[in-house]
Amino acid sequence: MSELILGKTVSESIYSELRVRIEALKSKGTTPGLAVVLVGTDPASEVYVRMKGKKCEELGMHSVTVVMPENTSEADLLKKVSELNKDSSIHGFLVQLPLPSHIDEKKVINAIDPKKDVDCFHPVNVGKMLIGEPDFLPATPAGVQQMLVRSGVDTKGKHVVVVGRSNIVGKPMMAMMVQKGDGADSTVTVVHSRTKDLPSITRQADILIVAIGKANFITADMVKKGVVVIDVGTNRIEDPSSPKGTKLVGDVEFEGVKNKASKITPVPGGVGPMTICMLMANTVAAAEKANVSR
Ligand SMILES: NC(=O)c1ccc[n+]([C@@H]2O[C@H](COP(=O)([O-])OP(=O)(O)OC[C@H]3O[C@@H](n4cnc5c(N)ncnc54)[C@H](OP(=O)(O)O)[C@@H]3O)[C@@H](O)[C@H]2O)c1
Q1: Per-residue buried b or exposed e for 272-292, using 16+ beta carbons within 10 Å of the residue's own CB
Q2: How far is the CA of 198 from the centre of ligand 1 (A)?
Q3: Residue 132 Cα, ligand 1 centroid: separation in angstroms?
């Protein structure tokens, strides 16, 4: 029977360390501040934005939510970004994606001051991560790495197979695991929708990190015994037995794969809580840097 790696347990240990750092900052007169800009009324984005605000409050951080209408012009959004870049009470901010189609997401991301880019989407921060000199790490892959480290998974010299090559999860995950140092030093293979004979590669993984958005894609025959499995996927599928008629599942067929894995993350309850946790960690780190350079 495999051991579960739970996001709640890992994130709580990080939050308790963050609380100490936040108190230290406050005692020097700095309250870490996070702003989230939401354009439009995408229901999933609204939920995430509310969760971020709530977590800031719980931690005693300063939190600002900027809600802009769906028909906001690109120029007005860029103006808001520029204001937040200058606002000394805000140490980190993000513009919730996706944006309405009339706004160029790249232009908006490029306008964020890299020092406040707590999502780590700005090309400067992506480049710094790649060369192993990060100011921030992107929240979801950083959360995955923390789950590995804090549950005692040795990554050194291990074969990490990342399934998916998105800019948000797969590619930064690859870049992080291949770096020198603790929680990394891995041999990394990335597979995607054009990969030939994908199962022959996933079966070689010591650590399998899956982020493709395809329900129950990885099955027991695609992994080797003893593998550590991190399932980033979140997919809502029909479930007539649940009151809502749907349920959340990962990209990994949990019931089958858990019998072969040494450690595995469930969905829900796995990677989910880690993204907001690492966003908070990035905001605290940004406030600490701003405090030093004051
Ligand atoms: N905090 C969290 O829990 C969290 C955070 C972020 C994302 N997620 C979830 O993680 C999943 C992935 O998110 P994402 O943003 O990385 O997705 P994405 O941008 O849609 O990228 C999906 C990746 O999976 C690959 N892929 C799709 N179908 C495949 C197949 N049949 N075989 C092999 N590769 C395949 C795609 O390959 P190509 O590049 O070749 O098209 C692409 O690289 C989603 O379920 C998302 O909801 C969860």
Answers
A1: bbbbbbbbbbbbbbbbbebee
A2: 15
A3: 24
Which tens digit of pLDDT belongs to each residue from 172-223? 999 999 999 999 999 999 999 999 999 999 999 999 999 999 999 999 999 9
Give the pLDDT of residue 293. 66
φ/ψ of residue 160, rounded to 5: -95, 125
The best mutation among 42, 171, 234 to test binding of ligand 1, ranked by most ligand atoms within 8 Å of the C-beta, falls on 234
Peptide bond into 268 cis (omega under 30): yes
* DSSP sequence for 24-84: HHHHTT---EEEEEEES--HHHHHHHHHHHHHHHHHT-EEEEEEE-TT--HHHHHHHHHHH
**Out of 80, 96, 115, 116, which one is annotated catalytic?**
96
pLDDT band at 291 (very low <50, low <70, confident <90, very high): confident
Domains with residue ranges and CATH for the chain: 29-113 (3.40.50.10860), 139-272 (3.40.50.720)
Q: Catalytic site residue 119?
A: yes
State the pLDDT confidence band at 294, using cuts at 50, 70 and 90. low
User: Does residue 279's CB lie within 6 angstroms of at least one atom of ligand 1?
Assistant: no
Q: Does any ligand 1 atom lie closer than 6 A to the CB of residue 193?
A: yes
